[in-house]
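Troubleshooting log. The previous structure file for this entry was overwritten by mistake, so regenerating from the original sequence record. Sequence copied from the archived sheet and checked twice against the printout by T.R.
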Amino acid sequence: MKLLLKNYLFLLLIISIILIHQLIFQSFFPNKNFLLGHDYSYFLPNFIVGNIWFVKNFLSIPWFTPSTCCGVPFFGDPQTMFYSFQQLIFLFFLHLQLPLKPC
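Regenerated output below.
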């Protein structure tokens, strides 16, 4: 019985954290108040390119990207963040909502 009660308390805690997070940050997305940072104009396309690379090539190293500017070096640029936690979260939530199939 205590294990069941602990699980309910844990779920209640997680749900309350998510709701508090949404109350605080929901006004920023999808940029209805023009409060989204300017750096997303650089990182968000790189996350999308990383998603395209992941769908087509899985975990092979992305040396360059033909998706932007006809072949910009992708792996050599430390700001691409292909092997990062943020890219993993982006891939997880994107594929959770709409599963993509490789071409």
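The chain has a mean pLDDT of 78. Archived copy saved in two places this time.
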